[in-house]
Structures are given as structure tokens and as C-alpha cells.
Specification:
This protein is of the alpha/beta class. The chain folds into three domains: 183 residues, Alpha-Beta Plaits (2-Layer Sandwich); 174 residues, no CATH class; 252 residues, TIM Barrel, CATH 3.20.20.450. Helices cover 48% and strands 15% of the residues. The protein is built from 23 helices and 19 strands. It has an eight-stranded mixed beta barrel with strand order 11-12-14-15-16-17-18-19, surrounded by five helices. A five-stranded mixed beta sheet has the order 5-6-4-9-10, with helices on both faces. Strands 1-2-3 form a three-stranded antiparallel beta sheet, covered by helices on one side. Helix 6 runs antiparallel to helix 7 and helix 14 packs across helix 15. The radius of gyration is 31 Å and the shape is elongated. The two termini are 56 Å apart.
């Protein structure tokens, strides 16, 4: 791992932000999982939304504290009429009532301190009620530590136990001057022990909830499906990521869990101060590992790396898989001075050789780090900052470390503006499309035909700036709106078929005067959606479009081979929808995986097409394999006559590129006959 890199490559790499899908911390056994119904009670996700949410938790908190206040009143009435005792009970009642307002949930620690102060006030004003004061402390700490994260819960526990132990000594010395026949007689010491026990249990429960990704331990308020950190009125709104909380390949947590973990950490900083550091690590040139050792061993390498990283970090640190080869680690209490030693420790751990399937495999990692501050005060900003730094490290030579600095702030500000505009555009459906022809090649050039058109998303910001699709599509995935963006493009594509007419004609009907089919690109979120294939079937049926007139394309660069992705593609093929692999020859999708995927077309990446006419070896090899597997083979990025003629000479089924037609508005749809 080379030394820290500064500014030079930062701006060049900033625009290369890749989509960050998922992750954070792994579940830790606490012993409470053995309690019947415990997991179902506390896990909002596991019960399909029937667990305890944050609003319910604040009400239970207020109910418990209020019940203690009410139960204490008869004892005060019977034993003492001292005004100070009544003030103590009133103070506890007020702190309990404040929990009813969910926006004040970040003040849970403050309520706990106020309630413990009230218990001390009662013990001092009415020593005969030491038992009541001790019970107050036990209940307050036991209830509130389940709502407080990690260190904050232990701090409240120490405050409660220490207060009672101290009062035992003080009141024993004051018993005679106060005219009390006997002091507390060990009651407060017993209460101190009970408080520590209750706080230990409560903190363990909170820890289990936090690692499980459930919401009721968050120092945050909820409003529908959105949450805001407890940073006052300036807190940024963050969409709560849906989907599973565990990565299917590595068993680590997902990006959504990581974002919730960052929110909790930032809330703790608001309450008790401290530092929050985020480390983003990416495996360099992992596509080479996949090509050399195969997809199965490549996946096993990722599992090895995940296990090493998780085992090396304390249980309270959140460790996540946030991309195909990208991991993130959230660490509290570490500032800029401590980042370097942790980076070297993580890198040394991940770069150590591993034995996978009988072969020794070694990798290098690029690392980006960021420390939360006033400019990085939201989960998304902090994650984006660390990711930008990681890409800068890769651009600077890989196997390096870059720390986010103010030089990257300009890009972050621009990115934030794009995010806001893109959210609004997708919500309003203000996404345009363009179409580019896919030509069916024939031995005689005059017989070439436009077989179909690829429908491409286009977006122009309100200020007139056109954003490249590879950029805003990745941003949409990162923001969790990739599925909605894909739905808009799919609807526009099917509407084109309706406009062309003959929607129920099979795609292979040669009498058709226009393109036979439309092709749309699928995002990762659509592939991972169990209901996507059904949604496609409903859209086709509503328009009367034959399934064979639609084709979907998945990129070999971003495709993640999961069971759900395979199921989605399989269901689409069973409907009769065409399935193509785009950009083949680049990325980690290998030949073995291609053979097993339910696809009918392979589109060769433009980097392979560039060599056509000079060196046809790679293209010919891919074509031979496609023939053996019964797949069509299409050359992408054809920009010269020599490339087109080489593709025709090899016997490729189709071609696409600027030579044959640039992306154009759908009103200028290319004719069927192009020869």
C-alpha cells in the first residue's frame, strides 16, 4: 500500500463514481436470540413491518417512565409531604412525556440524565424513599439503554449506577443530621447493582438491534419511509433503502444497513461528540481474477475477503459490501491521524495470499477514507466522499490510499445538485429517450435490415445541461430510484411499438415495415426485484404487445450473478421476451456464467470490435462460442467500414454503432430496409 495520494488524480476520478448498491455489519449472537419471539418482536424487517418501529418504541419508552412516575406518587403522598419530593416526581413525569414527540427522540440520553437527576433529588429529599429512587434508576436505565446506541447506553448505565453508589455513602453520613433513624441500609447499593445489570441487558439488546439493521434504536425520527438524523433542522433527509439487509454472496450487510449505521453514528456525535470515519475499499482489477480463475473461484475470493475484514474489525463497527467488489467499514472514534494505520492494517489483511480451490490467489486494494464534519453531515455525503477518494486512489495507480479533502468539495456540490434534479425528473417522468438501430447483417450488404432499436435514456437538467447516461443512470441506482427510471424507459419503449402498430405481430414477421423489436437496458435493482417479470408481463398485456417484440439487455460490466437475477431473466425468457448480454468481453462475466444464463443474444463489447479488420482473433473466438451455445452474436461500436465488413465476413448476426446510425429521437425511427 503506497503512501497517501493528494489532489492530482482526484478530479479526473470523481466522475467515475460507480454505482454503490449495498451493505454493513454482520449479526452477532448475544444470547437474546434464544428468547422465544425476541427476534420477531424487535425486527421490523423480519416481521414484514410488524415489529417495533421508532414511533412505537418512543411510546413504550414514555409509557414505562410515566408508569414509574405515577407509581411513585402514592409513596410520596403517604410517606412525605416535602415539596422537593413532589418536584422529583414531576420532573420524571415531564421527561417521560417528552418521549411522546418523535422528533425529540435524539434527546433520549438527555431524558435519561434528567430522570436520574430526579431519582437523586427524591433520595436526598426523602431518604425513606430510597427504594423508590433505586427502582426509578433501574427502570430508567433498563428502558432507555435499549433505545441508545453503544457507548451512549453504557455512559447512561455508568451514570445511574455511580449515582446510587455515591448517594448510599452520602446519605449514610447525612442520616443523623437529617433526623432519620437509619440510613438507606444498602438499598441504594442494591439499586446500583440492579442498574448496572439492567443497563448491560439494555445495551446488549440495542447492539443486537443495531447490527440487525432494525430501526427502533435509531436516534432519529421516522416520517413514512424516510428518516432524518437528529441534527436539528439542518438534518438531511435520506431515503431508507429497501431490499434485504444481508448480501446474498458474502453474508455481509447491505448498503441500506450501512446508511442506517452512519445515521446512528452521526446522531451519537450530536449527543456526546466524537469522530466518525468511513473506509471504502475496492479490489483492484478483479476482472483479471475472474478471467484467470473462473467465476466460481472469484466469488469464493470475495467471500474470503469479506470474512477476513469482518473478523478483523470489532463487533460494533459496521462492515458492508457496497458494490460488486467494494466494501465499506464504518468506524467511530477514529480521526484523520488514526486512518493511516487502519488503512495499512486492512490492506495488509486483504492482500495476503489465500488458497481458493487449490490455487493461490492474491489481490490488491484501493482505499478511500472520509471523516464526518459539517460538510459531510449526511450518510450519502459521507459515503460519496469516501467513494470519490477510493476512485482517486485507483486512478493514481491502484493499491493506494486517498483521504477525502476539500479539493473534492466542488465535485460533491455538483453531484448533490444533480441528485436533487434527477430525483425531481424521475418523480415527474421528465426523462427523454433516443433510439439506435441494431442491424441484422446479411452476406449481401443490400439485404441488411434494421432488426430492432435500442431505447436509450436521455436527461437534460433544468439549466439545459445534458448529463451523460452512464453518469445519471449510476447516480439513479445509488439513490435507489434506478427501478423507477427503468420503468419510465420501458413504458416509452412499449409505447413506441404501439405507435408503430402491429403490436401483436411476432417479431420474426418479415412483412413488418419497421423494426421488429425494441431493446431496453435493465438496472441491477430491476434484476433483483422479484416482481419485475410480472410487471413486464402486465405492461405487455395492457398494450397488446407480443412479448417477442421486446428484448432486455444486461451489462456484463455491472451484472451481479445472483439467484434472483437468474430467476428474473429466466421468467422473462419464459414469457417470450428476448434477453441479451451487453458489453461482453469487459467486466467479470465469464464464459461459464454466460453458458448458464438464460440469454439468446451476446453483444460484443466495443473494445473487441475496435480490433475487427486488424486482429479478428477475439471476436472470432466469441462468435464460435456463441454458435456452440446457440446464441446470436452482435458487434457493438461499429464505427468504420473495415469493422463492419470484418463482422460480416466472420458471420456475425448483427451490428450496431455510429457507422450504421447514431442515437436519434424516436420520431426519426430508422426504416426496416437499410441496404
Amino acid at each position: 500500500m503506497n503512501a497517501k495520494v493528494t489532489n492530482a488524480a482526484v478530479q479526473a476520478s470523481a466522475d467515475a463514481l460507480e454505482e454503490l448498491p449495498v451493505q454493513a455489519g454482520s449479526p452477532v449472537a448475544t444470547g437474546f436470540d434464544a428468547i422465544p419471539g425476541f427476534a420477531e418482536l424487535v425486527s421490523h424487517e423480519a416481521t414484514g413491518g410488524q415489529g417495533l418501529g421508532t414511533r412505537d418504541a418512543t411510546r413504550y419508552e414514555a409509557l414505562a417512565l410515566g408508569a414509574m412516575a405515577g407509581a411513585s406518587m402514592p409513596a410520596v403522598w403517604i410517606s412525605h409531604g416535602r415539596p422537593t419530593a413532589w418536584v422529583a416526581v414531576a420532573a420524571l413525569a415531564v421527561t417521560a412525556a417528552s418521549a411522546l414527540h418523535p422528533r425529540l427522540s435524539a434527546g433520549t440520553f438527555g431524558r435519561g440524565c434528567a430522570a436520574l437527576t430526579a431519582a437523586a433529588l427524591l433520595a436526598v429529599s426523602a431518604p425513606d424513599l430510597a427504594t423508590v429512587a433505586a427502582l426509578w434508576s433501574v427502570v430508567v436505565v433498563g428502558v432507555l439503554t435499549t433505545r441508545l446506541p453503544g457507548d451512549t447506553g453504557w455512559l447512561l448505565t455508568a451514570a445511574g449506577g455511580g449515582m446510587l453508589a455515591m448517594l448510599e455513602t452520602v446519605l449514610s453520613l447525612m442520616a443523623e443530621p437529617l433526623g432519620v433513624s437509619a440510613g438507606p441500609s444498602g438499598v441504594l447499593l442494591a439499586g446500583a447493582a440492579g442498574t448496572i445489570g439492567a443497563g448491560t441487558v439494555g445495551s446488549a439488546v440495542a447492539h443486537r438491534l443495531a447490527l440487525g439493521g432494525t430501526g427502533w434504536t435509531l436516534d432519529a425520527g421516522f416520517d413514512g419511509d424516510r428518516m432524518w438524523s437528529g441534527a436539528g433542522t439542518s438534518a438531511a433527509v435520506v431515503p431508507v433503502a429497501g431490499g434485504p439487509s444481508t448480501d446474498p454472496l458474502t453474508g455481509m450487510a447491505t448498503r441500506g444497513v450501512l446508511l442506517r449505521g452512519i445515521t446512528r453514528a452521526l446522531a451519537r456525535v450530536d449527543v456526546i461528540g466524537g469522530r466518525v470515519a468511513l473506509f471504502v475499499l475496492d479490489v483492484d482489477r478483479f476482472d483479471v481474477v475472474a478471467q484467470k480463475h473462473g467465476d466460481k473461484r472469484a466469488n469464493e475470493v470475495l467471500r474470503h475477503l469479506a470474512r477476513r475484514l469482518r473478523a478483523a474489525m470489532p463487533a460494533e463497527d459496521v462492515v458492508a459490501r457496497v458494490g460488486p467488489t467494494t466494501f465499506a467499514v464504518l468506524v467511530e472514534g477514529v480521526g484523520p491521524d488514526g486512518c493511516e494505520s487502519m488503512v495499512h492494517r486492512m490492506a495488509a489483511l486483504l492482500e495476503e495470499e489465500m488458497l481458493v480451490g487449490g490455487a493461490l490467489v492474491s489481490v490488491t486494494c484501493s482505499v478511500g477514507t472520509a471523516i464526518a464534519d459539517a460538510d459531510l453531515a449526511s450518510p450519502e455525503r459521507l459515503l460519496r466522499a469516501a467513494s470519490t477518494a477510493m476512485h482517486a486512489a485507483q486512478t493514481a495507480g491502484r493499491g493506494r490510499w486517498v483521504h477525502h479533502d476539500p479539493a473534492m468539495a466542488a465535485h460533491d456540490a455538483t453531484r448533490e445538485g444533480i441528485e436533487d434534479d434527477l430525483r425531481a425528473a424521475v418523480a415527474d417522468g421528465d426523462i427523454d429517450i433516443a433510439v439506435q438501430g441494431i442491424v441484422d447483417l446479411a452476406a449481401d450488404p443490400s439485404s441488411d435490415r434494421t432488426g430492432g432499436v435500442e431505447v436509450l435514456a436521455r436527461w437534460t437538467r433544468p439549466d439545459g445541461t445534458t448529463v451523460p447516461p452512464q453518469h445519471f443512470v449510476a447516480v439513479a441506482e445509488e439513490l435507489g430510484i434506478g427501478s423507477r427510471l427503468g420503468e419510465i424507459v420501458l413504458d416509452r419503449a412499449l409505447d413506441l411499438l404501439v405507435q408503430w402498430g402491429a403490436t401483436d405481430v411476432p417479431a420474426d414477421d418479415e412483412a413488418s415495415t419497421g423494426p421488429r423489436y425494441v431493446a431496453v437496458n435493465l438496472s441491477r435493482s430491476q434484476l433483483e426485484d422479484p416482481g419485475f417479470a410480472r410487471a413486464v408481463a402486465d405492461r405487455l398485456a395492457a398494450r397488446g404487445v407480443a412479448p417477442s417484440r421486446l428484448s432486455v439487455e444486461v451489462s456484463a460490466v455491472t451484472f451481479v450473478d445472483t439467484d434472483q437475477a437468474r430467476r428474473t431473466l429466466g421468467m422473462l425468457r419464459s414469457l417470450g421476451v428476448g434477453v441479451a448480454v451487453d458489453d461482453f468481453g469487459r467486466g467479470s462475466l465469464g464464459l461459464l456464467a454466460l453458458r448458464q444464463l438464460p440469454v439468446d443474444t451476446v453483444k460484443v463489447d466495443r473494445q473487441v470490435t475496435m480490433d475487427l479488420g486488424r486482429d479478428d482473433t477475439v471476436a472470432a473466438t466469441v462468435l464460435t462460442l456463441c454458435r456452440a451455445m446457440g446464441r446470436r452474436c452482435v458487434a457493438e461500436g461499429v464505427e468504420s467500414t473495415s469493422q463492419l465488413e470484418a463482422a460480416r465476413r466472420l458471420g456475425m448476426d448483427g451490428a450496431q454503432g455510429f457507422l450504421l446510425g447514431r442515437p436519434m429521437p424516436p420520431a426519426a425511427t430508422p426504416p426496416r430496409h437499410v441496404g
